[in-house]
Fold:
Amino acid sequence: GESLADLHFAPAELYQWLIPYASPLDFIQDNTAVFQQLQAGYLDDMASAKALSPSFENTHVVVMILPDVAWARRVQGVFGNALANATPEKAHAILTPAGATGYQVSVRAPLTNKTQADILCANFPTGGGRQGAAGINFLPRAQLENFVQKFSATYATVNNEF
Structure:
């Protein structure tokens, strides 16, 4: 989440629940009410994300623009990973609103060819990352079309190399 208000539990509170356990797996196995709430929240959040339609899609890329709500901020990363695993031959961009004037962008290169995410994102002032996964901290809304064009062109070229 972007703020404590986005989370199901504040990190300090959750930490207190975890202290008695030697491993997070023990916490999960104990199936406490806290774990059940976390699990139900995660499943609800992912169901909301999976119900969305792509904002742009072609044979090489998928662009998802999430709404400006708490569940979207909680699942941006795991949703990007789920999409990448579901269609490993495509690159994925997950955008979440960053204030009223821009987006935070998370890019996953195709799992079949984990390249170019860092180079693509470095084209934008607050972008960077690794070859297989990168991001842009703030993409002005006015740059959205430019980003989608560069994103699509990058992965059309990458996919044609193989």
